[in-house]
Amino acid sequence: MAPTALATPPSFSHIKMVASDLDGTLIVGKNFNGGKMTDRTVNALQALENRGIPIAMASGRPPRSMVPLVNQAGLKHPYIISCNGGIVLDSVTKEVIRKYSIDTEAVRELIKEVKAHFGNDDILIGGESGTSFRCEEAYAQKRWDWVGKVYNRIDDLHYLADENNTIEKLMILHREWPADELFYYLQKNVLTDPKWKSMIHYTFSSPYFVEVSAVGVCKATALKDLVDKLNVKPAELIAFGDMPNDCEMLEFAGTGVAMGNAHQSVKDIADLITADNDKDGVAVVLEQVYEQL
């Protein structure tokens, strides 16, 4: 098991960049419709940025729901990794540094496969482009608390993705099953053909849905784009996360830190385990980083 960051802090003097997940990591509580950062976390982030350390926030959320959370930190120039790496954004210039869309035919074939296996009523589909959310009406009604009035209804899912509408993250929602149960079922019983490994990447980060990205795309992919842009080596990066969609990011970073409340799969691959998000777990480590710079 990875050592706790509270007991034996390692050397952090080499750190030149910070990346962190939001929900369950920087954000307190388990409310995916809101949430906030504590003053201690905000102060830790600002202190490092003032020392020249760039900060990236990485989430499965689209930019429109990330920005209000990112703004809580009051940073001068945070970087945004949204849709699990599907969109990399400079929050100040609004430049889209990179955008990774799922192949249209992969979207169509995946929808056809899962709908055929489960039936049309049990599996609900939605697609995120970063600027708009497109879904079947049943999806919107099931997740009205999250989708609300921002969605565009698609009556024929064949046209969820087309030449005019790219999808950076596809959501697969089961009417009854939680996300982890659906994820492992898809892995073992539905998406078993080796072809899927060359078509899509899928994971989960909430209790609700499985999240699909373009093949090879995850938070780590986006972070590589950023470290290359900022002239930072992966070994100089520290990253924080709590759910399976954070695993590649923590493995990519020279120092990967799992939250105390993290999914076991994240703790298994982390270099360090810190306190829970509700106990300022990120700030605990960042304060140690600051002291050693």
Describe the fold and architecture.
It comes from Mucor circinelloides f. circinelloides (strain 1006PhL). The structure is a single chain. With 293 residues, the protein is α/β, with parallel strands linked by helices. The protein has 2 domains: 17-100 and 218-292, HAD superfamily/HAD-like (Rossmann fold, 3-Layer(aba) Sandwich); 104-214, Hypothetical Protein, Haloacid Dehalogenase-like Hydrolase, Chain: A, domain 2 (2-Layer Sandwich). The protein has helices spanning 39-50, 63-71, 104-118, 137-142, 144-147, 179-190, 219-230, 247-252, 264-269, 281-292, and strands spanning 17-21, 55-58, 79-82, 87-90, 96-99, 123-128, 133-135, 151-153, 169-174, 200-204, 209-214, 237-241, 255-258, 272-273. The strands form 2 sheets. An 8-stranded mixed sheet has the order 5-4-3-2-1-12-13-14, sandwiched between helices. Helix 1 (39-50) packs parallel to helix 10 (281-292). It starts with 16 loop residues before the first strand and ends with a helix.
Quick structural overview:
This is HAD superfamily hydrolase. This protein is an alpha/beta fold and 293 residues long.
Under the CATH scheme, which class of the largest domain?
A: Alpha Beta
CATH architecture of the largest domain: 3-Layer(aba) Sandwich
The number of helical runs is 10
Q: In which range does the helix fraction lie?
A: 25-40%
CATH superfamily heading of the largest domain: HAD superfamily/HAD-like
GO molecular function: magnesium ion binding; phosphatase activity
InterPro entries: Cof, HAD-like_sf, HAD-SF_hydro_IIB, HAD_sf
Protein name: HAD superfamily hydrolase
Pfam family, one: Hydrolase_3
